[in-house]
Write a structure and sequence with these properties.
This protein has about 190 residues and is of the alpha/beta class. Helix content is about 40%, strand content about 20%. The chain is globular, with a radius of gyration of 17 Å.
């Protein structure tokens, strides 16, 4: 597995693109837990509680010319974590320049043969395979830099982006997941 410094260096050295494919129904990230609890409790969004260093990094790197795209694979109905992620995280990161796309498995006929793990791709030249435990805690990453393997991931990225719906359109068309609506209905 990569050390934290090695992992971070891939982000720092990227020149044109950060791409992320994300597919777990929830992640156990300590820094997210207070915001997730506040969301589920119906508390108002507090921008001061957002992960400022990450948001600043997104904004800075996009301003420098990095295209940051994420494909989030979901399967409706969404988990509590996925609803929070959409409503409080993606709406914020979209404003910063990250472009998120959604593949809802319950709404597509065919899905590319995606690997059963999350991954990042930097500049179409290296893939970082993400490793998580059963609770969604990040354990580390390993690098894939074999040109033939990376080329296969580039094809998967392109297929996923072709199939996916831009997050703003997906969110507008799924009001059943908006917090105001599920809080009101009690579900």
């Amino acid at each position: 597995m990569l050390s934290s410094e090695e992992f971070d260096a891939y982000f720092d050295n990227a020149k044109s693109e950060w791409f992320r494919l994300e597919g777990l129904s929830s992640y156990k990230v300590d820094v997210e837990q207070p915001r997730l609890r506040a969301y589920l409790a119906g508390e108002p969004y507090a921008s001061h509680a957002a992960p400022s260093p990450w948001y600043e990094e997104i904004e800075r790197r996009v301003r420098e010319g990095i295209a940051f795209r994420k494909v989030r694979v979901l399967a409706g109905p969404l988990s509590e974590y996925e609803r929070w992620e959409c409503e409080w995280s993606y709406t914020a990161t979209e404003r910063l320049g990250q472009r998120t796309f959604i593949i809802d498995r319950s709404e597509v006929d065919t899905l590319p043969e995606l690997p059963p793990f999350d991954w990042w791709m930097m500049d179409g030249r290296v893939v970082l395979r993400m490793h998580y435990d059963n609770q969604g805690r990040f354990l580390g990453a390993s690098a894939i830099d074999d040109p033939e393997e990376v080329a296969a991931y580039v094809r998967l990225r392109d297929q996923a982006l072709d199939l996916a719906t831009p997050f703003p359109a997906y969110w507008r068309s799924h009001p059943q997941y908006w917090r105001e609506n599920w809080l009101r209905s009690g579900s």
